[in-house]
Amino acid sequence: MERKPAAAAALVVVVVVVLAAALFSVGEAAHPRRCVTSTYRRKHQASDDMPMDADVFAVPPGRNAPQQVHITLGDQTGTAMLVSWVTVEAEGNSTVLYGRAADRLDLAAEGTTTRYTFYNYTSGFIHHCTLTGLDHGTRYYYAMGFGDTVRTFWFTTPPPPGPGAPLRLGLIGDLGQTPDSNSTLTHYEQHPGDAVLFVGDLSYADKHPLHDNNRWDTWGRFSERSVAYQPWIWTAGNHEIDYAPEIGETVAFKPFSHRYPTPYRASDSSEPYWYSVKMGPAHIIVLSSYSAFGKYTPQWKWLEQELKRVDRETTPWLFISAHVPWYNSNNFHFMEGEPTRVQFEQMAVDARVDIVFAGHVHAYERSHRYSNIKYNITDGKCTPVADRRAPVYIVIGDGGNIEGLADELTWPQPAYSAFREYSYGHAVLDIKNHTHAHYAWYRNHDGNKVTADTTWFTNRYHMPNHDDSVYSNTAYV
Ligand SMILES: [Fe+2]
Known about the structure:
Blueprint: H1 4-30, E1 36-37, E2 67-73, E3 81-87, E4 95-99, E5 107-110, E6 112-114, E7 117-118, E8 121-122, E9 125-131, E10 139-144, E11 151-156, E12 167-172, H2 179-190, E13 195-198, H3 214-227, E14 232-234, H4 254-259, E15 275-279, E16 282-286, H5 298-309, E17 317-321, H6 338-350, E18 355-358, E19 364-367, E20 370-371, E21 385-386, E22 392-396, E23 417-421, E24 425-431, E25 436-445, E26 448-458, E27 473-474
Parallel strand pairs: 1-23, 12-13, 13-14, 16-17, 17-18, 18-22
Antiparallel strand pairs: 2-3, 3-9, 4-5, 4-10, 6-9, 7-8, 10-11, 12-24, 15-16, 19-22, 19-23, 20-21, 24-25, 25-26, 26-27
Bound molecules: fe (ii) ion.
């Protein structure tokens, strides 16, 4: 008799627990983490690079005209812009005139010139000039080629670091110079962002005999139509290494480093391949998959310090770009990113990184917020688990290049994988405010631009417990 109240209490507890579990499961069922493998199948044969005489590679008219014009941030926040171009017939000068109106270029900056050889290739004169003293969020016009053929371009500097300004970020990777590459760039240009975060593998010149560096020049002329007008943030990929001991070329990143400088010193980095920039509400950390990253290496130590410098009140959004993905459910390059994941994932989770962008795999994939940081060799906890503290991982190596698509998925689709498809395309991240960012991946759908995967991301610092996997909206055919 005396045990009745205890039994009743136990019954109440059981009922409460069961009800709570039921409610929780209903909540989960209403917002399941969907894992979608797109059923869209594009013909996926590899395309050849566009021919050397393709119109997109045309040399601009005029004697010794500046060509391959491209810009990237010249300091950490965009009050400087680094302008690069090539002259072929003669060195010419490295002066850039700039100002707030095309007919009033009242500022001047003096640059430098470099050249390099690669086996039997000698580059043109590569000019680099940093325009300083710029105001944020301001349109500037700039011109170079004085004494020969003057060409004029323009760009808009990013908004100042701060949580209020919106920012539209293009996401392109593994672009190459095939007709597919051309479609991707054309689709991006239809509604371009403020800047492009490029996740590596630019020209694929190394796929040609002797790493034909003329293909670096054609890629520079092809991409100029976008990258002369807005900064592209460069990440080094494996096709930038250009290590070719068989022809005596043993200096890694030789063409890339001569042509595409980065503002690494502004973020206290010691090498051009890992650095950070801050644009409006975003703090973007670029890492190098092909530089030493083990504990105590310069890159590892820099990242450790850099994460301490991040101020989420000023720059609420924190992103990492690295060429090799840490999460990839494609047989192409499967597990290649595992050493970097093991080294950096705990740091990324602890720092509440919002998104980690990667390329390398020629397909598209977006993850749920998952982590795999429990495993300690002996505990057996080696399966990624849902983790709201963790970044979303996006593989955007689908720009379209001479190697073709990565068309072998692993099965079953892992629970962390939210959406995957092997088509070409690009993505855009629209940061609306300090809590919400809209994201869309656009497939190259046989000549058309089709929205294929969209979602909202909520900020890991300002909405740390919000489960943003509920927003996923994929349109696949
Ligand atoms: Fe790659």
